[in-house]
Every structure is written in C-alpha cells, then in structure tokens.
Amino acid sequence: MIITTTPTIEGHQIKEYKGLVSGEVVFGMNFVKDFFAGLHDFFGGRSGGYEESMIKGRQTAQKEMEEKAAKLGANAIVGVSYGYETMGQGGSMLMIAISGTAVVID
Length: 106
Prior knowledge:
The chain is α+β, with helices and mostly antiparallel strands. The protein contains two helices and four strands, in the order ββααββ.
C-alpha cells in the first residue's frame, strides 16, 4: 500500500475515495526510561529509550490505519498526518495518532 503525506500520487490517478482512516496508540513511559531520559536531558544527547518507544508507537498506529484502509478496499492512503500528545498525570502517557484518506488508485 502506498502511503503519502501529499494529496496525490505522481503517476497514479485516484479512482475512488473510500474515506478517512486513522490509527491511534497510547502508551505509558516507565520509571526507568524517565530516569535515563532525565540524565540525557541533563548531560545532553539523545534518549534512545524514548526514541525507540516513539518509533514502535508510530509503526503500530500506521499499521492500524493501513488495516482499516485495506478493509475499505483501498490500495493507497493520501494526505497522511501524524500527531503526538502527552497525557495523564505529569505527562506520563504518550498518544500517537495518524490519519489520512483511503483511496483506490490505478
């Protein structure tokens, strides 16, 4: 399945619009990741634990969106957009949401 942030796909014509599809993932950050992320913030550098969690979350949300599009009979998703939001007490939860328009292309 072709997935793109653009409203069209070069070299393909959109034959049918199937509708909006989305995928959402909410997960908690554990104490150990928070502790080491705090050290990274203090000393500088990247937080591998958070980055890994965000990558897995984004992939899970995208897979959910693709499955919904396939159930509608789509073979592509256009106009894709990601959103990230912290939730819960002290921002202890992270929500990743993705949405786009499921379409049939030639």
